[in-house]
Write a structure and sequence with these properties.
Blueprint (H helix, E strand, L loop, with lengths): L7 H8 L2 H11 L4 H28 L2 H21 L3 E3 L3 H17 L1 H8 L7 H32 L1 H9 L4 H4 L1 H21 L7 H8 L4 H33 L12 E3 L6 H18 L12
Antiparallel strand pairs: 1-2
């Protein structure tokens, strides 16, 4: 298996294709030019940082480094899941539910591809554990986000129907049953569509990447089947955990609807505002820690 190395000019040439999208935004007056540029820059920085992290962990090849990297990835994904929610539970409950959802979805679904089929030696081999973990985290994040968004917004819209069922003596999971089914269907539909379109309508990324690296097409297809099933399982576990946890947080032990616990998430500051805050924090830190000063002056 041989891998074609890409130079920076190759990446720059491929980036020219993105200019088509920028041109469409300009022609249609969408105002997305800055967002596209920021998203592309963020993608490049994030992928580069993750690649450097993976390189360090692969060189160490220790279970401790692999575990720390895995925990960091799950924690970041859990935080991103919480930030995506437009309606949040007051207090730390949203963060706890989001991190628990990622942990359950990833921890259970990763056992099948690693222990059962891939079987890396040693079992903590970061070359297998971390890429599979990243894929499963993304799948769990996507499905859990849809499930929670559908559940919270649906609870607000169907408040009367849910309270009517509870007033008739229905327990909270029975009262939320129609909304639960709707949330789970919305979360799992993308996985069904992806599996149905795999092969004929679209070539999945893992299979295409392995074929570009020189792998046998049949072996790449088998590996893609394995990961597709694992991703669907992780998405299902994430959606169920998020939806059931959301019902528990939107009701109490007396089976009453508690929409008073919901609050609308504060809007995220613009990138320029966040950069200004980081610069101000760096200046304050430089003033408190003299050894961080460069030369004779403090941090600029």
């Amino acid at each position: 298996m041989t891998l074609t190395e890409l130079a920076l000019d190759d990446l720059a040439l491929a980036g020219l294709v993105l200019c088509i999208t920028v041109g469409i935004s300009l022609a249609c007056g969408l105002g997305l030019e800055a967002s596209i540029a920021i998203a592309a820059a963020r993608m490049a920085v994030q992928l580069g940082a993750v690649a450097l992290l993976f390189k360090v962990v692969l060189e160490q090849a220790s279970p401790l480094c692999t575990a720390v990297a895995a925990l960091v990835m799950v924690a970041v994904a859990g935080g991103e899941l919480a930030r995506r929610q437009e309606l949040c539970i007051r207090g730390w409950y949203t963060q706890a539910l989001c991190h628990l959802t990622l942990l359950v979805g990833v921890a259970i679904s990763i056992l099948c591809p690693l222990a059962g089929m891939i079987g890396p030696e040693p079992w903590y081999a970061p070359r297998y554990v971390l890429p599979v973990l990243a894929l499963l985290s993304g799948s769990t994040l996507a499905s859990a986000s849809v499930a929670l968004q559908t559940l919270t917004h649906g609870a607000m819209a169907e408040r009367g129907a849910i309270e009517a069922r509870m007033a008739q003596g229905a327990r909270r999971f029975i009262a939320f049953a129609p909304l639960l089914r709707h949330a789970l269907k919305a979360a799992l539909s993308p996985f069904l569509q992806a599996m149905s379109a795999s092969g004929l309508l679209a070539l999945p990324g893992t299979m295409a990447g392995q074929m570009l690296a020189g792998a046998d097409p049949l072996a790449a297809a088998k590996f893609q089947m394995l990961l597709t099933v694992a991703l669907a399982g992780a998405g299902g576990l994430g959606a169920v955990t998020a939806a059931l946890g959301g019902v528990l947080l939107l009701s109490d032990r007396r089976h009453r609807l508690r929409l008073d616990r919901l609050r609308r998430a504060a809007p995220r500051p613009r990138l320029a505002t966040r950069l200004a805050r980081w610069v101000a924090a760096g200046r304050r830190l430089g003033g408190r820690l003299p050894w961080l000063r460069v030369g004779s002056g403090a941090l600029p």
